[in-house]
């Protein structure tokens, strides 16, 4: 199993980082404008890309305010189905550190490693969003 | 051992990407301006960041417009820096 891992410091409170990951408004601010996310454990989150040319469907497994968000992916992309996405927020000297793990990949396929590069870009987009720089979502439709 | 893997599409000929990874002018255009590099197998490229610290990488392999392999042989900060002993490999493929 392959795991993708990222870590970025964010000059913000853990509560603000959490809001970018746990609310529909927050997720629309950096990932895709086509986001529909429940804000409760056991709920669903759907992320559409390129006019729903692809949709990632998540179940929300954990929401620990200011600390942790966990999703499991159930489709539609065959390589994403069965993966787990874990966001962990730590506080250090009044700032936050966001760690991300995308685990459960079956292999380090070209698609998987290209997703790793995209996650790297998205980590910076989350940072800019939480720090109030209004980057907008990576995908607009 | 941990491996970090990435892949990106670039709208440019492989020769330009190869130059970005091997020439001093290329490397200084995206990584750090404080770099000394020579596109020659066996050469040591020195990258320096804030506080003038950074890694020294040795060029282990070069294949024109196809691949580049480096080994981090030293770090100005600390001889036991996590980068020391790691290898960095760039592979270019033409998209059909």
Features:
heterodimer; A: 141 residues; alpha+beta; Alpha-D-Glucose-1,6-Bisphosphate, Chain A, domain 4; seven-stranded antiparallel β-sheet; 3 helices; 7 strands; 25% helix; 40% strand; globular; B: 96 residues; five-stranded antiparallel β-sheet; 5 strands
Description:
- Chain A is of the alpha+beta class.
- Chain A has one domain (2-130): 2-Layer Sandwich (Alpha-D-Glucose-1,6-Bisphosphate, Chain A, domain 4), CATH 3.30.530.20.
- Helix content of chain A is 25%, strand content 40%.
- In chain A, strand 6 and strand 7 (95-105) form a beta hairpin.
- Chain A is globular and about 40 Å long.
- The termini of chain A are far apart.
- The model of chain A has no long low-confidence stretch (mean pLDDT 97).
- Chain B is α+β, with helices and mostly antiparallel strands.
- Chain B has a single domain, classed as START domain (Alpha-D-Glucose-1,6-Bisphosphate, Chain A, domain 4, 2-Layer Sandwich), CATH 3.30.530.
- In chain B, 14% of the residues lie in helices and 30% in strands.
- Chain B contains two helices and five strands; from the N terminus they run H-H-E-E-E-E-E.
- In chain B, strand 2 (44-47) and strand 3 form a beta hairpin.
- The N and C termini of chain B lie far apart (33 Å).
- The model of chain B has no long low-confidence stretch (mean pLDDT 96).
- Classes of the chains: A alpha+beta (141), B alpha+beta (96).
- Chain A binds chain B through residues 108, 110, 112-114, 116-117, 120, and chain B through 3-9.
């Amino acid at each position: 199993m392959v795991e993708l891992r990222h870590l970025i410091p964010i000059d913000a409170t853990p509560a603000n980082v959490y809001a970018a990951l746990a609310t529909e408004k927050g997720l629309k601010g950096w990932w895709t404008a086509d986001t529909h996310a429940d804000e409760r454990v056991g709920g669903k989150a759907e992320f559409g890309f390129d006019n729903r040319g692809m949709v990632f469907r998540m179940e929300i497994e954990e929401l620990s305010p200011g600390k942790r968000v966990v999703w499991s992916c159930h489709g539609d992309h065959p390589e994403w189905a069965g993966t787990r996405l874990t966001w962990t927020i730590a506080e250090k000297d009044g700032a936050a550190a966001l760690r991300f793990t995308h685990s459960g990949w079956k292999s380090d396929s070209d698609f998987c490693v290209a997703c790793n590069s995209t996650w790297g870009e998205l980590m910076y987009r989350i940072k800019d969003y939480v720090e109030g720089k209004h980057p907008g979502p990576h995908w607009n439709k | 051992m941990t491996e970090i893997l990435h892949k990106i599409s670039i709208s440019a000929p492989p020769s330009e990407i190869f130059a970005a990874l091997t020439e001093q002018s290329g490397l200084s255009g995206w990584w750090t301006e404080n770099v000394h590099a020579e596109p020659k197998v066996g050469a040591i490229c020195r990258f320096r960041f804030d506080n003038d610290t950074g890694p020294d990488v040795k060029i282990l392999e070069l294949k024109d417009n196809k691949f580049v392999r480096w080994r981090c042989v030293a770090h100005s900060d600390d001889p036991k820096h996590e980068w020391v002993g790691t290898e960095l490999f760039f592979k270019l493929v033409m998209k059909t």
